Amino acid sequence: MTDRALAVVRAGALTTVQDRGRPGHAHLGVPRSGALDGPAAALANRLAGNLPDAAVLETTLSGCSLRPRSAVTVAVTGAPCPVAVDGHPAAWGAPVRVRAGSVLDVGAAVRGVRAYVAVSGGIAVEPVLGSRSTDLLSGLGPAPLTDGSVLPLGTPGERHARVDGAPQPAPPGELVLRVTPGPRDDWFTPEALRLFTSRAYRVSPASNRIGLRTTGPALSRARHDELPSEGMVLGAVQVPPDGTPVVFLADHPTTGGYPVIAVVHPADLPAAAQSPPGTPVRFIAVRRAGGA
């Protein structure tokens, strides 16, 4: 039995293995997947001395507890949360050395939703289609963590970052999403288009890695005929029959039959990953590149 492994003491509400995802397989019906808050995951890897594409753990709201079988360097980023080693407070957002057999506890998020736990060497589960990411929609990649499971670790590379801490953006008090209108905005009434970019929505508790669901004013359609299924992209804002927008995140389906009223700017999606239920959401229309 290798000592380069990590035992899961407490899996938490939902903890998955994530890396930069598996883009380029939409024609096979495979979503991109990967860490929802990419910058936070990348920072955790830098702090732990890993390469950018190393796999990390993505926790959801309640954190997790881990016991390494050998000494490792870890870093926790993303949603601010208490971090402890054997019950003693440790740093969040900075490299932490954890001895073999000690327990690292990543506590519940104080703000935000998802924390990222990088371990020196990276989580070395078998890749599927070039990625170690858990995909909740297709079922590809490793299953979400369970208590008692054991994860293999890779060989540590370069030394961890020599810093006391690294700046990170705070989870948003209000989620502002810049959107490019279309491609099916003509399927909605003028009043619906006005409401979409002038009224506040809120993040729904039904949100997950597939999509950020919202509550708020329903958007009325101008067309009610059937829309043939068409390709969906990361950040697409689809409007299902109840009229409330859904922002597609990393595990989104690659096709869909509901009209897409707009597409969110990619740079705004990490903040969506850190917006808990009840967070106000505003959609701000921006012009297409080269548009009038």
Automatic annotation (TrEMBL):
Key word Nucleotide-binding present: yes
Keywords, in A-Z order: ATP-binding, Hydrolase, Nucleotide-binding
InterPro entries: CT_A_B (IPR003778), Cyclophilin-like_dom_sf (IPR029000), PxpC (IPR052708)
GO molecular function: ATP binding; hydrolase activity
Domain Carboxyltransferase: 27-289
Record's protein name: Biotin-dependent carboxyltransferase family protein
Organism: Streptomyces haneummycinicus
